Automatic annotation (TrEMBL):
A GO term for molecular function: CoA-transferase activity
UniProt name for this protein: Formyl-CoA transferase
Gene3D superfamilies (alphabetical): Crotonobetainyl-coa:carnitine coa-transferase, domain 1, formyl-coa transferase, domain 3
Organism, scientific name: Terribacillus halophilus
Keywords: Transferase
Length: 397
C-alpha cells in the first residue's frame, strides 16, 4: 500500500532518543530516513541498555526503517558530503548542543543557501535561545525543569523521576509533528519554503501543563506532589483487589461517578452533600477514596473489571510487560510485532501507531548495522567506489 510520506527524504543527524524517535515515526509512515552516525562508534543509543550479549535491544525498535551512513563532520570531506546530502533532502533533524553544527560549518545559515526548501528541526535540552541554551540537555533533567518531576511522588518523600526516558519520547512526537507541519506549509503555499524549527526537550512536557499554569496564575497555588491524579477528579487512584492485584480507577466526570455509585449499589452517595458533585468530592477526597478502596478490596480483580466495564466505569488492571505480551487486546491491535534480526533472529518490537485506514505505516526494514548503507548512499551522491574506499581509509566514513 502507499504510505503517507512516500518520497519524503529525511536526514537524521541525531543521537540517543528524542530526535531519533521522531525520525523513526516519520520512517514508519514511509519517509526515507538516512541516519548519519560517527564512524566506528555510531549513535550513542547503540551503547545504551538493555543488552543481550553485545546486542543493544532498544536499537531495533528505535532505528527501524532507516539507512546508516557513517560520517565524520570534523573533517572537511565529511562536511562536503553533509552539504551534498542537505541539497537532496527535504528535512534535516539534529540534536547537538546549540552552535555545534555552526562550528562544523553546516549550520542552518549555510545549508539553507544550498537548499532553500530544506526544513531543519533542531532539538536541544533548553532551545536555541535563552540563557540556558548551552546547557547539556538530557530528558530526565529536562523533565525536572519542566515542572513535571515536582508533581510526581508521595507527599512525604522526595520527587520521583519517570522510570524511563518519557520526555525524550514525548519530544520525538513533537519532532514528527513539526516535520509534517512544516512540510505541509512548504508544499501547499505559493510562498512556502524551508524553515528552521526550534524544539526544546523541557517544553515538550511543559506544553501539557495548562492546569499548572492556570492554577498558579489565577489562584496563586503551588501544586505539590501526589502519587496519582490530584486536584482534578475524585475518586481516583490505585487500588488493591481482594486477590491482591492492583487496578487504576478514575471518575473524571459526575456521570462516571454516578455509574460507579450504581455499580457499588451506593445510591446514597449521589445525594450526600460531601460526595454528590466532583467539587465536593475533591474537598473530601480522602474519605471517598477510602470508601471506594474498601469496596474494591472485597472483589477479585476479574469480577471487579467485568462489573465496572458493564457499568461504563473507567478502570484498568496495572499491567506488567509479561501481562502485556499475553493480553488479547494488545494482540488484536498488533501493538507488538515480530521482525527478523540478522543475529538475534525473531525479535519483538512495538507496532505502528497510529493506524491509518488507507495509508498505513509499516516496518520495511530492521534497524541498520553501523555504516551498512555507506556505499549505497554515497554512490547516490555521485561518489565512485574508489572514492568511497579513500573516504573510508581517511576515516571520513
Amino acid at each position: 500500500m502507499p504510505t503517507p510520506l512516500e518520497g519524503v527524504k529525511v536526514l537524521d543527524v541525531s543521537t540517543m532518543i528524542a530526535a531519533p524517535f521522531g525520525t523513526a515515526l516519520l520512517g514508519d509512515f514511509g519517509a526515507e530516513v538516512t541516519k548519519v552516525e560517527i564512524p566506528g562508534r555510531g549513535d550513542t543509543s547503540r551503547s545504551v541498555g538493555p543488552f543481550k550479549g553485545d546486542e543493544p535491544l532498544r536499537w531495533p525498535g528505535l532505528s527501524r526503517n532507516k539507512k546508516s551512513l557513517t560520517l565524520d563532520l570534523h573533517k572537511a570531506a565529511g562536511v562536503e558530503i553533509m552539504k551534498k546530502l542537505a541539497a537532496t533532502h527535504d528535512i534535516l533533524i539534529e540534536n547537538f548542543r546549540p552552535g555545534t553544527l555552526e562550528k562544523w560549518s553546516v549550520g542552518y545559515d549555510v545549508l539553507k543557501e544550498i537548499n532553500p526548501d530544506l526544513i531543519m528541526i533542531r532539538v536541544s535540552g533548553y532551545g536555541q535561545t535563552g540563557p540556558y541554551r548551552e546547557k547539556a540537555g538530557f530528558g530526565t533533567p529536562a523533565t525536572a525543569f519542566s515542572g513535571y518531576t515536582y508533581l510526581q511522588g508521595f507527599t512525604d518523600r522526595h520527587p520521583v523521576s519517570p522510570p524511563f526516558s518519557l520526555t525524550d519520547y514525548i519530544c520525538g512526537i513533537y519532532v514528527a509533528f513539526a516535520a509534517v507541519t512544516a512540510l505541509y506549509h512548504r508544499d501547499t503555499n505559493t510562498s512556502g519554503a524551508g524553515q528552521m524549527i526550534d524544539v526544546a526537550l523541557y517544553e515538550s512536557v511543559f506544553r501539557m501543563m495548562e492546569f499548572l499554569v492556570a492554577e498558579y496564575d489565577q489562584l496563586g497555588k503551588i501544586r505539590e506532589r501526589s502519587p496519582g491524579l490530584a486536584g482534578h477528579s475524585s475518586p481516583s487512584g490505585t487500588f488493591k483487589t481482594k486477590d491482591e492485584h492492583w487496578v487504576v480507577l478514575v471518575t473524571s466526570t459526575d456521570t462516571t461517578f454516578n455509574r460507579l455509585a450504581a455499580a457499588m449499589n451506593r445510591a446514597d452517595l449521589l445525594t450526600d452533600p460531601h460526595f454528590h458533585t466532583n467539587a465536593s468530592r475533591l474537598e473530601n477526597n480522602e474519605a471517598i477514596n477510602q470508601i471506594v478502596a474498601d469496596w474494591i478490596s472485597n472483589h477479585p480483580r476479574e469480577a471487579l473489571l467485568k462489573k465496572l466495564d458493564e457499568f461504563g466505569v473507567p478502570i484498568s488492571p496495572v499491567l506488567s510487560i509479561a501481562d502485556i505480551f499475553a493480553n488479547e487486546h494488545y494482540q488484536a491491535r498488533e501493538n507488538i510485532v515480530e521482525v527478523q534480526h540478522p543475529r538475534l533472529g525473531a525479535i519483538k518490537v512495538p507496532g505502528i501507531v497510529p493506524k491509518f485506514e488507507k495509508t498505513p505505516g509499516s516496518i520495511r526494514s530492521i534497524a541498520p548495522d553501523l555504516g551498512e548503507h555507506n556505499e549505497e548512499i554515497l554512490e547516490g551522491l555521485g561518489y565512485s567506489l574508489v572514492e568511497i574506499e579513500t573516504l573510508k581509509q581517511n576515516g571520513v566514513i
